[in-house]
Protein backbone atom coordinates (compact mmCIF):
# COMPACT_ATOMS: atom_id res chain seq x y z
CA UNK A 1 0.00 0.00 0.00
CA UNK A 2 1.22 3.50 -0.89
CA UNK A 3 0.12 6.68 0.83
CA UNK A 4 0.85 10.17 -0.50
CA UNK A 5 0.92 12.82 2.21
CA UNK A 6 1.05 16.46 0.98
CA UNK A 7 3.15 18.81 3.09
CA UNK A 8 1.94 22.19 1.79
CA UNK A 9 3.87 24.28 4.28
CA UNK A 10 7.13 22.82 2.96
CA UNK A 11 6.09 22.47 -0.70
CA UNK A 12 6.85 18.75 -0.50
CA UNK A 13 4.99 15.48 -0.41
CA UNK A 14 5.85 12.48 1.71
CA UNK A 15 5.30 9.02 0.27
CA UNK A 16 4.75 6.24 2.79
CA UNK A 17 5.05 2.66 1.64
CA UNK A 18 3.73 -0.14 3.88
CA UNK A 19 5.61 -2.92 2.06
CA UNK A 20 8.86 -1.40 0.70
CA UNK A 21 10.13 -4.28 -1.45
CA UNK A 22 6.86 -4.66 -3.36
CA UNK A 23 6.02 -1.00 -3.91
CA UNK A 24 9.33 0.52 -5.00
CA UNK A 25 8.47 0.11 -8.71
CA UNK A 26 4.91 1.34 -8.17
CA UNK A 27 6.19 4.49 -6.48
CA UNK A 28 8.62 5.14 -9.32
CA UNK A 29 5.79 4.80 -11.84
CA UNK A 30 3.57 7.04 -9.71
CA UNK A 31 6.21 9.76 -9.68
CA UNK A 32 6.87 9.40 -13.40
CA UNK A 33 3.17 9.58 -14.31
CA UNK A 34 2.62 12.51 -11.97
CA UNK A 35 5.64 14.41 -13.25
CA UNK A 36 3.48 17.52 -13.59
CA UNK A 37 3.04 17.42 -9.78
CA UNK A 38 6.46 16.31 -8.61
CA UNK A 39 9.99 16.94 -9.73
CA UNK A 40 12.03 13.91 -10.62
CA UNK A 41 14.46 12.59 -8.09
CA UNK A 42 16.04 9.46 -6.75
CA UNK A 43 13.74 7.34 -4.64
CA UNK A 44 15.39 5.94 -1.55
CA UNK A 45 13.60 3.71 0.89
CA UNK A 46 14.40 4.32 4.52
CA UNK A 47 12.40 1.73 6.39
CA UNK A 48 8.76 2.38 5.58
CA UNK A 49 9.14 6.02 4.57
CA UNK A 50 10.39 7.19 1.20
CA UNK A 51 12.14 10.52 1.18
CA UNK A 52 10.05 13.55 0.34
CA UNK A 53 9.89 14.73 -3.27
CA UNK A 54 9.79 18.45 -3.96
CA UNK A 55 6.68 19.72 -5.74
CA UNK A 56 7.15 21.72 -8.94
CA UNK A 57 5.77 25.21 -9.00
CA UNK A 58 3.10 26.75 -11.17
CA UNK A 59 4.05 29.34 -13.76
CA UNK A 60 1.90 32.09 -15.25
CA UNK A 61 1.72 33.76 -18.61
CA UNK A 62 -0.39 36.84 -19.33
CA UNK A 63 -2.28 36.72 -22.62
CA UNK A 64 -4.27 39.33 -24.53
CA UNK A 65 -6.39 37.52 -27.10
CA UNK A 66 -7.22 38.73 -30.59
CA UNK A 67 -10.32 40.63 -29.43
CA UNK A 68 -8.54 42.38 -26.56
CA UNK A 69 -9.62 40.24 -23.58
CA UNK A 70 -6.92 39.54 -20.99
CA UNK A 71 -6.27 36.08 -19.55
CA UNK A 72 -3.87 34.61 -17.01
CA UNK A 73 -2.86 31.08 -17.95
CA UNK A 74 -1.18 28.84 -15.41
CA UNK A 75 0.95 25.86 -16.38
CA UNK A 76 3.52 23.49 -14.97
CA UNK A 77 6.91 22.75 -16.45
CA UNK A 78 6.66 20.01 -19.12
CA UNK A 79 2.85 20.15 -19.09
CA UNK A 80 2.88 21.26 -22.74
CA UNK A 81 5.58 21.03 -25.41
CA UNK A 82 5.33 24.64 -26.50
CA UNK A 83 3.36 27.84 -26.00
CA UNK A 84 1.02 27.07 -28.90
CA UNK A 85 -0.19 23.88 -27.20
CA UNK A 86 -1.02 25.81 -24.02
CA UNK A 87 -2.92 28.45 -25.99
CA UNK A 88 -4.81 25.80 -27.99
CA UNK A 89 -5.70 23.88 -24.84
CA UNK A 90 -6.83 26.83 -22.73
CA UNK A 91 -8.09 29.46 -25.19
CA UNK A 92 -8.29 28.45 -28.85
CA UNK A 93 -8.66 25.28 -30.81
CA UNK A 94 -8.20 26.88 -34.21
CA UNK A 95 -4.46 27.57 -34.11
CA UNK A 96 -1.65 25.29 -35.11
CA UNK A 97 -2.81 24.09 -38.51
CA UNK A 98 0.74 22.93 -39.27
CA UNK A 99 0.97 21.15 -35.88
CA UNK A 100 3.90 23.16 -34.63
CA UNK A 101 6.21 23.08 -37.65
CA UNK A 102 6.30 26.90 -38.08
CA UNK A 103 4.67 26.75 -41.51
CA UNK A 104 1.17 28.24 -41.19
CA UNK A 105 1.48 31.34 -38.99
CA UNK A 106 -1.84 30.75 -37.19
CA UNK A 107 -0.04 30.99 -33.84
CA UNK A 108 1.47 34.44 -34.58
CA UNK A 109 1.93 36.38 -31.32
CA UNK A 110 3.62 39.53 -30.06
CA UNK A 111 5.85 39.15 -27.01
CA UNK A 112 5.70 42.20 -24.75
CA UNK A 113 7.94 41.08 -21.88
CA UNK A 114 10.80 38.57 -21.46
CA UNK A 115 11.37 38.42 -25.23
CA UNK A 116 15.12 37.98 -24.85
CA UNK A 117 14.59 34.74 -22.91
CA UNK A 118 12.72 33.03 -25.74
CA UNK A 119 15.72 32.03 -27.76
CA UNK A 120 16.71 32.81 -31.32
CA UNK A 121 14.33 32.55 -34.25
CA UNK A 122 15.10 29.80 -36.74
CA UNK A 123 15.02 30.51 -40.49
CA UNK A 124 11.66 28.77 -41.08
CA UNK A 125 10.02 30.90 -38.38
CA UNK A 126 11.41 34.09 -39.93
CA UNK A 127 10.14 33.04 -43.36
CA UNK A 128 6.64 32.24 -42.08
CA UNK A 129 6.45 35.52 -40.18
CA UNK A 130 7.61 37.31 -43.33
CA UNK A 131 4.53 35.96 -45.14
CA UNK A 132 2.17 37.52 -42.59
CA UNK A 133 0.12 40.61 -43.44
CA UNK A 134 1.47 42.45 -40.43
CA UNK A 135 4.77 41.74 -38.69
CA UNK A 136 6.31 43.47 -35.70
CA UNK A 137 9.76 43.57 -34.11
CA UNK A 138 8.40 41.44 -31.28
CA UNK A 139 6.53 38.93 -33.50
CA UNK A 140 7.02 35.23 -32.83
CA UNK A 141 5.29 31.94 -33.56
CA UNK A 142 3.98 30.36 -30.36
CA UNK A 143 4.76 26.89 -31.69
CA UNK A 144 8.47 27.73 -31.67
CA UNK A 145 8.59 28.85 -28.03
CA UNK A 146 9.34 26.13 -25.50
CA UNK A 147 7.08 26.26 -22.48
CA UNK A 148 9.33 26.30 -19.45
CA UNK A 149 9.97 28.34 -16.32
CA UNK A 150 11.73 31.06 -18.34
CA UNK A 151 8.33 32.20 -19.64
CA UNK A 152 6.96 32.81 -16.16
CA UNK A 153 5.46 36.31 -16.08
CA UNK A 154 5.70 36.85 -19.82
CA UNK A 155 3.02 39.01 -21.45
CA UNK A 156 1.95 38.15 -24.99
CA UNK A 157 -0.70 39.24 -27.45
CA UNK A 158 -2.28 36.81 -29.92
CA UNK A 159 -2.27 38.13 -33.48
CA UNK A 160 -3.16 34.94 -35.39
CA UNK A 161 -2.48 34.06 -38.99
CA UNK A 162 -3.53 35.87 -42.14
From TrEMBL:
A Pfam family recorded for this sequence: Fer2
Give the top-rank taxon of the lineage listed in the UniProt record for this protein.
Answer: Bacteria
In which family does this protein belong, per the annotation?
Answer: Belongs to the adrenodoxin/putidaredoxin family.
Q: What is this protein called?
A: (2Fe-2S)-binding protein
The record ties this protein, via InterPro entries, to: 2Fe-2S_ferredoxin-like_sf, 2Fe-2S_ferredoxin-type, Adrenodoxin-like, Beta-grasp_dom_sf
**Domain 2Fe-2S ferredoxin-type, first and last residues per copy:** 96-146
- Keyword annotations: 2Fe-2S, Iron, Iron-sulfur, Metal-binding
GO terms, biological process: P450-containing electron transport chain
Which Gene Ontology MF annotations are present?
Answer: 2 iron, 2 sulfur cluster binding; electron transfer activity; metal ion binding
| Cofactor(s) needed for function | [2Fe-2S] cluster
